[in-house]
Amino acid sequence: MRWYVARRLLWAVVATFVILSITWALLYVTEQQALTSIQFQAAVSGGDAEAARAAYEQQRGLDRPLWRQYADYMTNMATFNWGYSTSRGQPVTAAIADALPYTMMYSVPWTILTVAFGLSIGLYSATHQYSRFDYAATFLAFFGYAIPNFWFGIVLLVLFGVHLDLVPIVFDPDAPVFSLANARQLVLPVFVLTTGSIASLTRYTRAEALEYVEATFTKTAKAKGVSERRILLLHVLRPAAVPLSTILVADLLGLFIASSYLVEVVFGIPGLGQLSFKAIQNQDTPLVLATTLVGVFIAVVGNLLQDIAYTVLDPRIDYGDR
Amino acid sequence: MSQHQRGATETQQELSLLSVRDLTVEFETDRGPLRAVDGVDFDVERGETVCLVGESGSGKTVTAETITKLIRMPPGRIVRGVAELDGRDLLSLSERDLRAIRGDRIAHVFQDPQHALNHCYTVGWQIREAIQVHEDVSDAAARERALTLLNQVGIPDATTRYDDYPHEFSGGMKQRIVVAMALAATPDLLIADEPTTALDVTIQAQLLDLLESIQTEYDMAILLITHDLGVVAELADRVVVLYAGKVMERGSVYEVFDTPAHPYTQVLFDCLPGRGRPLRSIGGTLPDLHDPPPGCRFASRCEYARKECHTGDQPPLYDVADAQTASCVYYGPGGDPDALRNGQSEGDPDG
Fold first, then answer.
1. Which of A30, A78, B289, B326 could form a disulfide with B262, with the two C-beta atoms 3.0–4.6 Å apart?
2. Domain ABC transmembrane type-1 spans what residues (chain A) (predicted)?
3. Contacts of B349 (CB under 8 A, 6+ apart)
4. How confident is the model at residue B276 (pLDDT cuts 50, 70, 90)?
5. CA dist A174 to A184, A266, A277, A304, B223, Å?
6. Domain end point (choices B143, B159, B184)
């Protein structure tokens, strides 16, 4: 177990290192937007474009040997010296620190609601297979699964924000975190995001739980006189949690890497998604890099936690290492 | 075994430990209801071993798992019948009352030891669960008892193996652990559903020996489900032969092996190798249980079938000998049992 975790931890470090190196290499070979515009200006004003380039490179340290640039980059990354965002006029880390709470405001409720509803609806469906509830849950799950988040968000905003005037249309970033006003403006984004994720988790939970509801060991437990609820929680949910944790981590990554862009732009939430979106629009390279790396680190850490969760949940998994 | 038989005759007037009457179970399928068990009657007396014998699909497992309602409902449905434990019908009990019976008075051992234990928990944890579900004892006391059980079923080095997971045991060892778990609350009846089928031959013999020894020690009745007549000969006091959800024949192991009465039982013995006769297989297949034909269920495959065998209901269980009955018109009024090969299929239960 300890050896297994140690190996996983080491692998996470290696993966991070590799990702950072590839990112550096990509940035190195990419044409520098700022440089192009400096050269253009120099040429327009009758100066020497090559001299401007040399000055730019010297100023940024790009004339130094490759390995020095690489080492500097890695040191900066490791010490969270992630550069300065020109479009926002503040250090990149500060911009992320400003945006992160807004993303948390909907992703924390999202996680809680997805796990609570996805697991319970899925488990109930599995134990009451082909009942009326199961059919209704299946229908809703396919609805939530099929409907595109950004479109659903706009429709709900038009309906509840414009026509019914129940929720504000413009997001107010200054609303206190734990206030009714903040809750009202977060209801729709959270609802839009959870429909899809609850739907998918429900279906996976139902399928996984069904496998164990019908397993011989569940019958053994029942024959021992164990109560239905204990069987469901200890004998069905525990083994089913292995694949489900994988799906949950994947969903969480999907939230940060894809859904957050759409939802934050539609609802005007100044979180990580919008920060990244605007950074791309403004060609603010350090900020694009940083917001992308946040997603990458979540992926690495998520996978690490998932691997550790596996061995806790299913003792057969680290068996080969003993 | 003679002791068990004496016990059986003495308690004949009293209540049987388990008494199953007219048990009828259907399963909802895409092709409509399938009647897996149809009017099955049998008794299990205290301390004796009753074998439910029959080929795959004859309703043995469904019968056994309906007694404590382990079958999934739906799709399963108990159409009618009772299963009385000491005169108390289990099938009409509330889930809560039934839970108190399961594991405590009636325990189960299933066919497939590879999947009978939950792979997420140590074997110790799982035996302890079986104890603590029925008895409010401390973890330490339950552990002591679980270790005793593990020793009893022959798990070497039980103290260290207690914290091992199921995947660290062999199939035979797993089945021993399942047996230990079944013994946790000293049940009156152990229902063992083909407990040796998934094991290799030498392990089978060991496990049967184990079942026999714990039966004596715990004075426990065993309802053994098997298609292996060798196992029947080894362990059974009485035999119930099932075919397509119906009881074909009932009797003591000596009677049924010496003079199998029902034509189905007779051909069943012909399928057994090593009896000095050419091996035979039974032609045809089980009747369709969605829409069983009228008359005797075995009629279409029976070489003695007469016209009346294809009409009406399954014949009642007619008396053949002392405690042997067969559901065959040849033993009914006007029937001529000698027309069947009665007595020719001599089988020695100890042979």
1. B326
2. 100-306
3. B232, B233, B236, B253, B254, B257, B258
4. low
5. 14, 18, 21, 35, 73
6. B184
Greater confidence (B229 vs B223) lies with B223
Q: What ranges do the domains of chain A cover?
A: 33-79, 92-321
pLDDT at A126 over 70: yes
The SS3 of residue A76 is: helix
CA nearest A237 in B: which residue? B120
End of a domain among B184, B211, B238? B184
Which residues are registered as beta bridge partners of A269? Answer: none
β-strand partners of B239: B51, B251
Q: Which of residues 106-145 of A touch B (CB under 8 A)?
A: 130
Residue B313 reports pLDDT greater than 70: yes
Q: Do B117 and A222 touch (CB under 8 A)?
A: no
Q: Is there a contact between A219 and B70 if contact means CB atoms under 8 Å apart? A: yes
In angstroms, the CA A101 to CA A99 distance is: 6
The total domain count for chain B is: 2
Q: Which residue of A134, A208, A217, A322 to mutate against B (max B Cβ within 10 Å)?
A: A217
> Touching check for A170 and chain B: CB below 8 Å?
no
Tell me how crowded residue B5 is: count the other CB atoms within 10 A of its CB: 17
Task: Give the fold, CATH level 3, of A92-321.
Answer: MetI-like fold (1.10.3720)
| Residue B171: half-sphere exposure toward Cβ, Cα within 13 Å | 15
Partner-chain contact A313 B115, CB within 8 Å: no
Of A215, A216, A223, the CB nearest to B103: A223
Cα angle value A101/A107/A112 (rounded, 5°): 130
